[in-house]
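User: Show me a protein chain along with its predicted structure.
Assistant: Here is one chain, sequence first, then structure tokens.
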Amino acid sequence: MDPPTTTSASSSPAKFSRSPTSPTVNRKKYYIQPITFKVEDGIYRVPSYGFVDASEVFAAMFTLPQPDKGEGKSDGNPVELPSCTKAEFESLLEVLYPNSVYQKPAKLSKEQWIHVLKLSTQWVMDEIRSLALGELSDMSLPLLERISIARQFRVVGWLRKDYVTIIQSWGAIPLEELAEKFGWEMTARLSDLAAKAQVPLSFLAKTSLKERLGSCTFNNKGGCKWIPKEEGETLERITFACSRCGDENSLKLHGGLQPPLHGQGLSAAIKAVFPEDFD
């Protein structure tokens, strides 16, 4: 059998050519442009799509025509972000650029998710903000920390619930602890609101309704304080909970009994006391 024929090294190789008139078009979806940021003393070069897709603020910035050596095009001319720290920015990058397309964002610590919440709020990254809030909600944060975070980043849904909780459990947290977290001015506003919301049994006694409402389990000798737990469109009947043990009872309001908060619902009263948190 004859050996297979081989091609001589001197043979001309196959040539591939394309028409010189064929136009080239950048496929935007698969033509990834990097962007360079400077945060503190750190330089970061990442694909621009993460910021463009997540934020209209950055989308408007990066979709405008820019010169080849424009801002963000090189390490020597980065987009400077003075309003955040390297730790905060890197926490956000972990969410915008997961390690794998098949993975959810890397598990972050509480502090890192707070960083993400801060920057996503600041840069109007609505989906990222919702993700951060969901992750933080699942962590069962302490009540005072939740309120602090909610006030800082305007999480109105948390505030509506947590202010009610702190008023309904008034006395469970020492005033000194509240003042250390929020300052004495805010603590005084909370204290005044709680005092107006609570209904001492001594007041109810004057209306001849003491027997109907009774004492709580915690203090069957009287002196416990009941506060409104549920609000309705009318004040004909209010459900009360003891601020100490959680016992519940309800009563029908008569003309001689002045409703708590002078007829104003607890949620409405909270908004009136803390307008800066709900405007």
